[in-house]
């Protein structure tokens, strides 16, 4: 079981100091994929960095400017180009003169009848591309950009080295598991990124949505175990003759509200694509939601 943490105290638009170098302002955009809203982080004092400025909302922009009055925003870091993370980056940069940093690789647009996320921000372009990572120094802070593809192909996490803390975006969240939806989401990349972050032994994870994870090692392992258990269930279902994803989902997710089954099908498909790639499952042609699957050998 994943030891979810869901309790968070805040007021929309208020700036809360949550550590010596970290402040947080939560946007009023609560929803099924954003939980209580987008938590934008302000790093340092004086010359500061902002992580995940969030949705293009005038009240959130003004809250960030008020929170940094008398200071200078020099860097804007974005984890990925979803509409609850990146759209406010350009308006904030135009008001402050800050430089925008993110992976410049364009994610693969998801065309689906199932709304899996807040939506892509297809117009987003950073000033500086960080797909290979990078290290940045402010007056009292050091930020390391860490490539963590999986949730999206262009996802980055950001480490605050002075506090051994990680801003994990949507890669790891305390309140929920992370959506992995093909074609841009990739389960193999996601497992590799989880292993990468686990090996760094961070003291605290600060997701963009929800409260911090203060005991990361067992939490990340539970995330990994959950995905591996689902993978084993899928293999067992195929072995039992459930050859199509739409037939598997009601069985694998029998305890989940059926209204969520279309979204669950995309998660199963992400696993299936990886199982086909690994040669453990076979299908005729490229794997799709409607393919017929069978165990290899």
Question: How would you explain this protein's 3D organization?
Answer:
The chain is built from six helices and 14 strands. The protein has 297 residues and is an alpha/beta fold. The strands form three sheets. Strands 1-2-3-4-5-6-7 form a seven-stranded mixed beta sheet, covered by helices on one side. The radius of gyration is 20 Å and the shape is elongated.
Brief synopsis:
The protein folds into 2 domains: 200 residues, 4-Layer Sandwich (Metallo-beta-lactamase, Chain A); 70 residues, Winged helix-like DNA-binding domain superfamily/Winged helix DNA-binding domain (Arc Repressor Mutant, subunit A, Orthogonal Bundle), CATH 1.10.10. Helix content is 27%, strand content 21%.
Keywords:
297 residues, alpha/beta, Metallo-beta-lactamase, Chain A, Arc Repressor Mutant, subunit A, 7-stranded mixed sheet, 6 helices
Question: How helix-rich are the residues, as a percent range?
Answer: 25-40%
Q: Supply the number of structural domains.
A: 2
Oligomer: single chain
C-alpha termini separation:
32 Å
> Mean pLDDT, rounded to whole units?
94
Instruction: Encode the helix/strand succession as letters.
Output: EEEEHEHEEEEEEHEHHHEE
Low-confidence stretches: none
CATH classification class of the largest domain: Alpha Beta
**H/I helix tally:** 6
Q: For the largest beta sheet, what order do the strands appear in spatially? A: 1-2-3-4-5-6-7
β content, as a range?
A: 15-25%
Summarize the biggest pleated sheet: 7 strands, mixed
Radius of gyration, in Å, reads: 20 Å
CATH architecture of the largest domain: 4-Layer Sandwich
